[in-house]
Design a protein that fits this description.
Blueprint lengths: L12 E6 L7 H12 L4 E6 L10 H8 L3 E2 L7 H4 L4 E7 L1 H8 L6 H12 L3 E5 L7 H5 L9 H13 L3 E4 L4 H8 L6 E2 L1 H9 L4 E4 L4 E2 L1 H10 L2 E4 L2 E2 L1
Parallel strand pairs: 1-2, 1-4, 2-3, 4-5, 5-6, 7-9, 8-10
Antiparallel strand pairs: 10-11
Helix pairs in contact: 1-8, 4-7, 9-10
C-alpha cells in the first residue's frame, strides 16, 4: 500500500514513477518531476532501488521535486497497477527503450511498463540523450555524444511508440502529457475488455473522456462488468 509522509493514502491523478539508475540525464529528470508535481490534482508515487535512492535521501528528494509519495515495490500484478492513472519514467536510455520494444521483461521496470501497456494505461518516458548538447551534458563531459544518441533514439522510439508509449524529448513536455493524455480521449474497445476479463477484473477504470465503443459496452453487459471513474462505479 502506498502512503505519503503523513501516512495518508494519496487521492487525485496518481502517477507511478519508477526511478532508473543512470549517471546522465539526472538534471533533466529532476526538472521534469518538478514540472509534473506542479500539475494540479497530481500525486507522484516514486519507486526506486535502495542503491538508486537510499532511504535517508528520500525526504530531501521529495522536497526537491515538490512532493511525492513512495512505494516499496513495483506492482507485480495488473490489478495492483490499475490504481494508477499513468506511469512516467524520468530517465530512460536507448538500452531501456530497446528492452521495452523487444518485450524483454527480465528487468522489473520493463515488466511493469509492459503490463501498463497491455492495460492501456498512459505511459511516458523522458528519453535521455535527445539533446546531449545541453549544458547539463556538457558539464558531465558528454556533450560530444550528440553525434550518436539522437540517431539511436529516432530509430528506437518508433518501436516504443507502437506500444502506445509517449516518448518525450524535453522535460517541459511532461506537463502537457499529464494534462492531455491522462484525462484525454482514450478508446476502450472489445479487445481491452477481453484482456481485463482474463485478468479476473469486474470493473474497468476509465478516464473522464474515455471513448467506449458500442462493442465494448455490449461485451461488458454480457460479462456483468462495470465502468469505474475516479474510484466510483457507474
Amino acid at each position: 500500500m502506498m502512503t505519503d509522509r503523513t501516512g495518508n493514502r494519496p487521492s487525485s491523478r496518481v502517477i507511478l514513477v519508477p526511478l532508473m539508475d543512470s549517471y546522465v540525464g539526472i538534471e533533466e529528470g529532476l526538472e521534469s518531476l518538478q514540472l509534473l508535481s506542479a500539475v494540479p490534482a497530481t500525486t507522484l508515487v516514486v519507486w526506486s532501488t535502495e542503491a538508486t535512492l537510499p532511504a535517508d535521501l528520500r525526504e530531501r528528494f521529495a522536497q526537491a521535486i515538490g512532493g511525492c509519495c513512495f512505494v516499496g515495490a513495483l506492482p507485480s500484478r495488473a490489478e495492483a497497477l490499475m490504481q494508477y492513472q499513468g506511469v512516467y519514467v524520468p530517465i530512460v536510455t536507448t538500452g531501456t527503450a530497446y528492452a521495452l520494444s523487444e518485450g524483454d521483461d527480465r528487468e522489473p521496470v520493463i515488466r511493469t511498463l509492459l503490463i501498463a501497456a497491455l492495460l492501456g494505461l498512459p505511459i511516458a518516458l523522458l528519453g535521455c540523450g535527445w539533446d546531449p548538447e545541453s549544458d547539463a551534458w556538457t558539464r558531465a563531459g558528454l556533450g560530444r555524444a550528440s553525434s550518436i544518441w539522437p540517431d539511436a533514439w529516432r530509430a528506437r522510439s518508433q518501436y516504443v511508440r507502437r506500444l502506445g508509449v509517449t516518448v518525450l524529448r524535453r522535460p517541459g513536455q511532461v506537463s502537457n502529457w499529464a494534462k492531455t493524455d491522462l484525462d484525454g480521449p482514450r478508446v476502450l474497445d472489445v479487445e481491452m475488455v477481453e484482456s481485463r476479463r482474463q485478468l479476473g477484473m469486474q470493473d474497468v477504470p476509465v478516464g473522464p473522456r474515455t471513448v467506449v465503443t458500442p462493442g465494448a459496452h455490449d461485451r461488458m453487459r454480457q460479462y456483468g462488468m462495470t465502468l469505474r471513474l475516479s474510484g466510483e462505479k457507474s
